[in-house]
Amino acid sequence: MPPGGSRTGAPIISADSHVEFPTDLYTDRIPERFRPRAPRVETRGTEKWLLVDGRKPKRLDVAASRVTEEDRDREFRDSSDGGRNIELRIAAQDRDGVGAEVLYPNALNLFSSPDYGYQMAVAQAYNDWAIRHFGERSDRFVPVAIVPVGDIAAAVRETERVARLGYRTLMIPISMKARPYNHPDYEPLWSVIEETGLILAFHAFSNDEDSYPIDWGTEEGTGGALAFMAFCMAEGMHPLTLLISSGMLERHPRLKFVIVECDGGWLAWLLSVLDQQVAKKHMWIRPQLELLPSEYFKRQGHVTFSDDPVALNNLRFTGADYLMWGNDYPHDEGSYPHSREVIERIFRGIPEAEKRKIISGNAAKLYGFGW
Questions:
Q1: Which residues pair with 42 in a beta bridge?
Q2: Phi and psi of 263, rounded to 5°?
Q3: Is the pTM of this model over 0.85?
Q4: C-alpha to C-alpha distances, 152 to 30, 108, 247, 363, nearest whole angstrom
Q5: What is the pLDDT of residues 170-197, one digit of tens each?
Q6: Cis omega (within 30 of 0) on the bond before 3?
Q7: H or E segment to which residue 14 belongs
Q8: Collapsed DSSP state (helix, strand, coil) of residue 298
Q9: For residue 68, what are the contacts with CB-CB under 8 A and spacing of at least 6?
Q10: Is 123 in a helix, a strand, or coil?
Q11: H/E stretch holding 93
Q12: Cα(180)–Cα(157) distance, rounded to whole angstroms?
């Protein structure tokens, strides 16, 4: 039995967890010419703001009255190690019942920088560090490589490189507004991802364009924060739809992909809509597909969620083989540190065999944990 488990004894894998960049990444690990672009904190009056290349300033300080004792245990608020201390991390996840993790970088805002050279330099520095840092504990951790795609030829080279380093999965921006993922230019990238066997990931909040609300954290906020979070969840539909509709999944039947941290309540509706439109608008839709859109997804796709009973309510439409659970450690919107309780609540009435697939079996099979 692997470490971690629910109260019913089933092992648990978090298919969506996070770690901070190493503290010296922007000072020592990237070329000197890019270091002035490093994220930095600026004080404006009594407020602290995070400045990130290509993004609006983000307010960091929150009134103490808003932060509960439980909030202190999330977002690395009380942890200077950013999840990089492996033993402390394992202890935290053991307390939450989690026995293994797929690790995404905590900083998901790299892709909005207008400088693709900077994007790639940061990504390569992180990729070199993460595989070395977590590689010896492959029983517990699957780190995710970062691959910017603004320069597709460079993205192909980095994909080949991270495959040689031993990565099992990589992430690209969840959206590329200037060149969406149905564009033919991406064909060399899809080919090399399929050839290397790397799992392609699209994580929420990793857009190439900044949609961050200017009223985030302000007392006079006008709803921007809530709207931002909701719309980012919905954005998971975009890459899934484009990969299917463009025929990419038809041309690359061995390529596996996953939509991360967008929950999954929308999945049943979207697959139904795609199947219906193929039938009703067949005279207009090109390329013509050999299979139904839902069949391509069920052959090659996965979606992660944390606390989403709607996704489980829709299992009769989607099936259980394509869903993976994650505690989103340590983010506010995740289930940490109450994952056992969340799992018991949202899986109530779900057959045990389907539950085991979703909380561990699907991720173990996809990422090769060997459980």
A1: 49
A2: 55, -170
A3: yes
A4: 21, 19, 19, 28
A5: 999 999 998 999 999 999 999 999 999 9
A6: no
A7: strand 13-19
A8: helix
A9: none
A10: helix
A11: helix 86-95
A12: 20
